[in-house]
Structures are given as structure tokens and as C-alpha cells.
Specification:
The complex is a heterodimer.
Chain A (H helix, E strand, L loop, with lengths): L12 E4 L5 H7 L6 E3 L8 H11 L4 E4 L13 H14 L3 E5 L2 E4 L2 E7 L5 H18 L4 E3 L6 E2 L6 H12 L2 E5 H11 L3 H7 L5 E7 L2 E4 L5 E4 L8 H14 L4 E4 L7 H28 L1
Parallel strand pairs in A: 1-2, 1-13, 2-3, 3-4, 4-7, 7-9, 9-10, 10-13
Antiparallel strand pairs in A: 5-6, 11-12
Chain B lengths: L3 H13 L4 H4 L3 E2 L3 H23 L1 H7 L1 H14 L14 H6 L10 H15 L10 H4 L10 E4 L3 E6 L3 H9 L14 E8 L2 E6 L2 H11 L4 H11 L5 H10 L3 E5 L6
Antiparallel strand pairs in B: 2-6, 3-4, 4-5
The chains are: A alpha/beta, B mainly alpha.
């Protein structure tokens, strides 16, 4: 396992940069601390890529892939990884990340982040793929915990155990999606506080927050759908504050991918994330100064 | 315990083909697993259907939203994307559209959808610095036929048996005439674009064959011979100057010939 250092990054909140906002960002240079992009939106769109290169001169960029598919038993999408590498070389992002999920099977891309059973076989496959991605990119790869609607009865370890072992084997870092923990704990009935308490703190390099949509289920109750199409839910803000108490301040990304509003709305969510972080960590800092 | 590859094959079939969920369900936990699996199935169909509808708005205008939506839903089930860049997804959609029941009432639908695909592709291109026309004079005249030209990335050549360029201009002008005469007629189109804009020009037979041959890698000499085959009055020198003068050429090179 090669040791790879992560580049220093301001522990403030950034926003997802989606295609509807590209020309506005180029023209107005809004006061965003950093942007995250999905490379899949740019690799086949030369005009968008040209605008991105311009934006990357003035803002730190995080590259968050939805298509590398480290969980695919049939292998990662190597041609796609090569294209991601070319974009990474072009814009020199501050972080590169992906998902603990799979999306490609036998040459088909399923346009979703599909769930994995947490077994020794899966761990072996995912670890080999993370090694390959990090070797190809020449930098650490951050792995995001998934939003889940189903689990597998065949799993032999918890998601946190799986992620911890993945970090141990590959030296990868973790992108902790706080909303995903909240959503998955609700949908699958696990203890979200325990999940936070068991994650390897030193591996956490970035946090995500995104909106979800509750939908009623047959027989009562509701399932939370990871739509990224609304503001962050109030209970998630409280859970975010709790996560920060454990992790300390980390770069936090506001995700908004559907029904994309004006950029000001998303920037306001980022400002709120900064305010929540300041509030959550202020007592600790005061205590540290007093002691 | 099923191996990961087998689980993923079953999950793929459940999501894409709405099949085999029965053999998968005993492996799943969480709420009602069948219903929960439907969340992934719905996301797959809805997200890709939306991508196609957004990519082919003129098809919806021409064929109706119900037909277009139904065709897009069927297409995403029959033809999953091969790669994660959804901007590249849908090149086979025009042919699929034309094969759908109900498409026979619109015999020009295939060509119309293909034209819309090309417009979408050229409008996200980035043009490059054109080759200065003076560059041609630095090449000996008798060597020019052996050279190849590279054209602007946002340039496509397209023929159709219907004047679909007129039809798409109707769509773009947001007008719907009460009566519209539309008869078969061969059109040869040059579609160019970059940075969100596009243009459609009709080109005569000689220029079309010359330019489209250049676009697929023919040497200037071979392209000129092909053009002369369809138009005995074709003037290669003049055609070359007009092509370069229009800023459509970005490079010229002489391919090496292996002995």
C-alpha cells in the first residue's frame, strides 16, 4: 500500500457545480469557497470542460466521480478511469472521490449507485479496485458511504467495519456523507450515532450534506429517497453538528443535483453549514483556550 | 452464498429488465425489499428517460410527448448506456424511434431525430483556431492532393430524404402553421456549431461529397475525385479555398506512405 498524502484544503463549505450554473459562475465569480464537480458531466462536453478550466483557475475544485464503479465484480470501467485521469491532470483538483457502490455490469452503465453486500469477497474486490484507482490517479481516493434502501442478508460485516478495513488495506480516505448516514439509518434501522462513533476519524477528509425526499411505504412508515433536490432537512443539521463534534471541522459539500435552484440558494445552505460548524465547535475551542 | 458477480447480474436484471427480482429478494433486507428495489428501478428508468427527452425536445414537439416518453422508456430498457457520460447516450435512439409502432405516420422521424442528435453534439463542441489560408500557398500545388485536412470538431455532414432542416427550423421558431406542405426531397446538410450555438446549411452535391469525404479522412485528391464523380463541373481548387476560407479547417498534414 503506497502512502499518499492528501492536499491541505480549507475546512469550509463548498457547493456542487452543476451545468445550469456554469456560465453564471464564469461571468460573476460568486463567493464560493470551493466547487465540487461530477467529471461525467464534463468528459463528453468540451464546451463545459472549457468553462471548467476557466473556473478552476480561481476556485479549488473537488472531483467526485459517479462512474468509476469500484464495486463492480466485472471490473472497474478502465476507459472511464483513464478519462477521469485526463481531467484530473487538466484541472489539478484538491480532492478526488467516488462511492462505495457499483454502477457498471458487463459493459452496461446503470446510472445509479447500487448496493453491495459487505463480505470478504466484496472487500477483496473493492480493495483491489481502490488500489488501481489510486495508482492511476497518483493521489488518494476518497470513498463515500452510500445512501441505502436495501441491505444484504449475506453481509458478514457492518458498513463501518467494511469501510474501516478498506481504509486499512488501501490507505484511501473517507468522504462521510452525513445525510446518507441519516437516511440509511432510517431506511435500514441502524443506530446512526453508533455509526458516527465507529468511523475511523483520521480517515475522514470531507463531508457531504444533501436533501432527501420522504415517501410513504406500504404498511405505514416512510422511506427516505436520496434525491438531492431540496434543502437539507432540519434534523440532519443537528446530526451534522453531532458529526462535527466527533470529526472536527472538515470541508463540507452541499449537494443539489435535481430541480437545481439559483446558485444563491445553494450558497446559502453552504453558509448555514459554516454557521452550524462554528456553533458546534465553539464550546470545544473555548474549552481548549481555557485549559 | 451467491458470488458478487451473480448478485450483480440479478440486480442488473431487476433494475433494467424488471426481471429476476424473485431470486434476489431472499438476499435482501430493509422494509419491503421488493418495494425498495423499485426505488432503484424507478431511478434508472426516470433519470435516463428524462435525459433522452431533454436531449430530443424537437422529437417530442413533432411526435407528441406521449409517443416520445413511451419510446424513451422502452429504449432505456432495451439499450442501457455503455458508459457513464450520459451526453454520449442516445446515438442509436433515432433508429429505435423509427422502429416504434406509430412511427409509420412520420416517415421522416428517423432523419429528424438524427438531425437533432447532431445539433446537440455540435453545440457542445469547442472550435479551434482555423488554418490560415496562406498556409496552403506554402505547399507545392502538385503535392496538395496527397494531403489530409482536419476539420473543426463541431462539424457534421448529413443527408436525408426529407427536408428535415426546414422542419426543425419550424420547431426552433416556435411557430405552428395551420397547413404545412412537406414532401420528400433529398437534402445535403452541413451542420456546424460550438459553445452553445449551431448552424445548418444546405450544400450542393459536389461540395457535400468533397467535404464529407475530407471529414472521414480522405486525402484532398481522393475527396476531389469522389466529388467529380457526382458533379462533372466540380472545381476542386475553388472548393478547397472556400472550405479553408470558411474557417472549417484546423490542420493540414501529409500522411506518411509505408514502402
Amino acid at each position: 500500500m503506497a502512502s499518499r498524502r492528501i492536499r491541505p484544503m480549507p475546512s469550509v463549505s463548498g457547493v456542487g457545480l452543476r451545468l445550469p450554473h456554469l456560465t453564471d459562475v464564469v461571468a460573476t465569480r460568486p463567493s464560493a469557497a470551493w466547487f465540487e464537480i461530477h467529471p461525467e458531466n464534463f468528459l463528453a462536453n468540451p464546451h463545459a470542460a472549457e468553462l471548467l478550466v476557466d473556473i478552476a483557475r480561481d476556485y479549488p475544485i473537488s472531483v467526485h466521480s459517479v462512474g468509476v464503479s469500484i464495486g463492480s465484480a466485472s471490473g472497474i470501467d478502465r476507459p472511464h478511469l483513464a478519462r477521469v485521469r485526463a481531467l484530473v491532470d487538466l484541472i489539478d483538483p484538491i480532492l478526488v472521490s467516488g462511492h462505495l457502490a457499483w454502477s457498471t455490469h458487463a459493459g452496461e452503465y446503470l446510472n445509479d449507485l447500487l448496493p453491495l453486500p459487505y463480505t470478504s469477497e466484496t472487500l477483496r474486490i473493492v480493495s483491489a479496485h481502490v488500489d488501481e484507482v489510486q495508482d492511476t490517479l497518483g493521489r488518494p481516493y476518497l470513498i463515500e458511504n452510500p445512501s441505502s434502501y436495501v441491505g444484504f442478508s449475506t453481509s458478514t460485516m457492518t458498513e463501518v467495519e467494511f469501510l474501516s478495513e478498506l481504509v486499512h488495506r488501501t490507505g484511501c480516505r473517507l468522504l462521510c456523507d452525513v445525510s446518507n448516514i441519516y437516511l440509511s439509518a432510517h431506511n435500514l434501522g441502524f443506530d446512526r450515532d453508533r455509526y458516527i462513533s465507529e468511523l475511523p476519524v483520521d480517515a475522514i477528509a470531507e463531508l457531504h450534506l444533501g436533501g432527501f425526499t420522504p415517501e410513504p411505504e406500504e404498511g405505514g412508515g416512510e422511506v427516505l429517497i436520496d434525491t438531492h433536490g431540496s434543502c437539507i432537512a432540519e434534523p440532519v443539521w443537528a446530526f451534522y453538528a453531532h458529526a462535527l463534534e466527533r470529526f472536527g471541522r472538515k470541508p463540507t459539500l452541499i449537494e443539489w443535483d435535481n430541480d437545481v435552484p439559483p446558485l444563491d440558494v445553494i450558497l446559502a445552505e453552504a453558509a448555514r453549514a459554516d454557521a452550524v460548524a462554528q456553533g458546534a465547535l465553539a464550546p470545544r475551542q473555548v474549552h481548549a483556550l481555557a485549559s | 452464498m451467491p458470488l458478487l458477480h451473480d448478485i450483480q447480474r440479478r440486480l442488473r436484471d431487476a433494475v433494467v429488465a424488471e426481471d429476476a427480482a424473485g431470486t434476489l429478494l431472499p438476499l435482501l433486507v430493509g422494509g419491503n425489499p421488493g418495494t425498495r428495489l423499485g426505488i432503484h428501478r424507478h431511478h434508472y428508468e426516470a433519470s435516463l428517460t428524462r435525459a433522452l427527452i431533454d436531449k430530443f425536445p424537437a422529437v417530442s414537439w413533432l411526435a407528441g410527448e406521449r409517443f416520445a416518453t413511451s419510446a424513451a422508456q422502452a429504449f432505456v430498457r432495451a439499450h442501457p448506456p455503455a458508459a457513464p457520460c450520459i451526453a454520449e447516450y442516445g446515438i442509436d435512439y433515432p433508429a429505435f424511434l423509427a422502429s416504434r409502432a406509430g412511427a409509420e405516420r412520420l416517415p421522416y422521424l428517423y432523419a429528424f431525430a438524427e438531425l437533432e442528435w447532431h445539433l446537440g453534439q455540435v453545440s457542445i463542441a469547442v472550435d479551434r483556431a482555423p488554418l490560415p489560408i496562406e498556409h496552403l500557398t506554402s505547399i507545392e500545388a502538385d503535392e496538395l492532393p496527397d494531403h489530409r485536412l482536419s476539420l473543426q470538431p463541431g462539424l457534421r455532414y448529413f443527408t436525408a430524404g426529407w427536408p428535415v432542416d426546414e422542419l426543425i427550423k419550424q420547431y426552433l421558431s416556435s411557430t405552428t402553421p395551420e397547413r404545412y406542405a412537406f414532401d420528400p426531397a433529398e437534402v445535403r446538410l452541413e451542420i456546424s456549431g460550438a459553445r452553445g450555438e449551431f448552424h445548418i446549411e444546405r450544400v450542393d452535391a459536389g461540395d457535400f461529397v468533397f467535404r464529407s469525404s475530407i471529414a472521414v479522412g480522405a486525402t484532398i485528391g481522393t475527396a476531389a475525385e469522389c466529388a467529380l464523380d457526382v458533379d462533372a463541373t466540380f472545381d476542386p481548387g475553388n472548393a478547397l479555398l472556400r472550405l479553408v476560407g470558411a474557417g472549417l479547417v484546423i490542420a493540414i498534414d501529409k500522411p506518411e506512405i509505408n514502402a
